[in-house]
Amino acid sequence: MYKDLFSCTGKLAIVTGGCGLLGKEIVRGLHEFGATVYIADICVDEADKLTKDKNIHYIHFDITLESSVNYCLDKILLAHDKVDILVNSAYPKMEDWGTKFEQIPYNSWKSNVNDHLGGYFLCCQKVAEHMKKRHGGSIINLSSIYGVVAPDFFIYEGTDMTMPAAYSAIKGGIIAFTKYLASYYANSNVRANVISPGGIYNNQSPSFVKKYSLRTPLGRMGTPNDIVGAAIFLASDASSYITGHNLIVDGGWTAW
Question: Cβ(113)–Cβ(40) under 8 Å?
Fold first, then answer.
């Protein structure tokens, strides 16, 4: 009765930022659970490895450009006439992303918020309207624990890392925006949920990794694989009665 609960067989999925650290593993996970997956990204390096399977496709996609979003989504819809799953994992940012708060130029703030949060808006607006016509679909937006709680700046001391102010604003906005979508499209059986990862290991400095791990109940940073299960759950019928939810995957960081 329940063996196919997490199946994505026969579903068409789009993963924006599908070549990224988290995106590529979500692509693999959705594919392994039966979905046909489109990697929508400006990067092609990882796409070459992922698209060796006939059910994983790549489309050059820039989430910061309305023309690119519309062209790519129209092209996918023309080819398949449906989108069942949208995962927004793209992570656009300006070159001065790591600037300290007091030195952030206003234009940089505006560009970062518009490109990232605005890009998610564009994708959701177009795909949700298509899902509405088909009376069903699952939208999953990637946020962060820093959209829920403030950064702990102690863990960045002694490194050249910081947590940009725009990141918290964007990720908090994504959570609120997704709840809006969940309510707005509920009558059309279109579900919208958020995954908020904690810190993901990506060869950060040893001092940062140590401090982060000590600050986390499970005693380690997350890995991309830790996020895949949450994505499969929210994409599949296993979560058919869940919408407007922010699924925090953080090793217990926000529990303390």
Answer: no
> 88 is written with which tokens?
């927004």
Continuous segment of H or E residues that includes residue 110? helix 106-134
Say how far apart CA 168 and CA 86 lie, in whole Å: 23
Point out which residues pair with 88 in neighbouring strands.
Answer: 16, 141
pLDDT per residue as tens digits for the range 195-245: 999 999 999 999 999 999 999 999 999 999 999 999 999 999 999 999 999
Alpha-carbon separation of residue 228 from 53, 109, 142, 234 (angstroms): 19, 30, 12, 10
Model confidence, pTM: 0.97
Q: What's the chain's Rg over C-alpha atoms?
A: 18
Candidate list 91, 146, 156, 167, residue with the active-site label = 167
Specify whether the CB–CB gap between 183 and 244 falls below 8 A: yes
185 annotated active-site: no
CATH number for the domain formed by residue range(s) 12-255: 3.40.50.720
